[in-house]
Amino acid sequence: MKLKILIVEDDLLLAEAVSDYFEGKGWETEQVHDGVTAVEKVEADNYQMILLDVMLPGMNGFEVCRKIRQNSDIPVFFITARVLEEDELTGYAAGADDYITKPFSLPVLYAKVMAMMARLRGGRPMEKLKKGGVEMDLRTGQVSICGQKCEMPPKEYELLRFFLENPDRIFTRDQLVTRFWGYDFEGNERVVDNHIKKLRKFLQGSRCMIQTARKTGYRMEVEP
Question: What dihedral do alpha carbons 82, 88, 91, 95 form, nearest 10°?
């Protein structure tokens, strides 16, 4: 069975070049050139990978990724000319798995995609996260901190998993609100502070610490 990839790119020549290259490697490809159509395609069909441009008409790549993440864990690989750290962090907060910046080599893009696929398909899926005295069983949702089982509310659990999977990365309050409460959340971003405060209490005694990045947001540090 062929692997199927969705190429979301408004540069028609680039989309065609990427499509031809992947088809030459045995993939089945589809192309769309705007964000709204991309979301519709993902809802209607099955893909093993999405290559997603950031600058799209109608709905940008960040918005598309957030929409996809509401219902799917399909790998999303951003293709973008935007290289600002803020954009990169926004992409990861929206649910992106990796980035490549324009201009790029098609063999390099293909190699990066295949490396990601190998990680996703090779062996058994990751069942546990262990860092700094914190252990999460991703099958059962059970959390242990310093060897003690911990009953954690859903939002704190989601935040903890996210930070454990992305240590040392700074995420702004706005990025966290978008990731965990949705793009159209109408409440105050200080809701993040309240949940971080609760999460910090759970983590007391462990070597995992949620640090405040002044005037920016939060990051997790894990002491050795």
Answer: 140
Summarize the confidence of residues 46-58 as an average pLDDT. 90
pTM of the model: 0.56
pLDDT computed for residue 124 by the predictor: 47
Residue type (1 letter), 107: P
Q: How many CB atoms lie within 10 A of CB 181?
A: 16
Alpha helix locations (H) across 27-105? Answer: 35-44, 61-69, 85-94
143 SS3 class: strand
Q: Residue 49's beta-bridge partner residues?
A: 5
Three-state DSSP class for residue 141: coil
Work out the pLDDT band at 150, boundaries 50, 70, 90.
very high
User: What span, in angstroms and rounded, lies between the C-alpha atoms of 206 and 75?
Assistant: 31
Indicate the Cα dihedral angle 69, 70, 74, 78, nearest 10°: -20
Decide if 56 contacts 13 (C-beta within 8 A): no
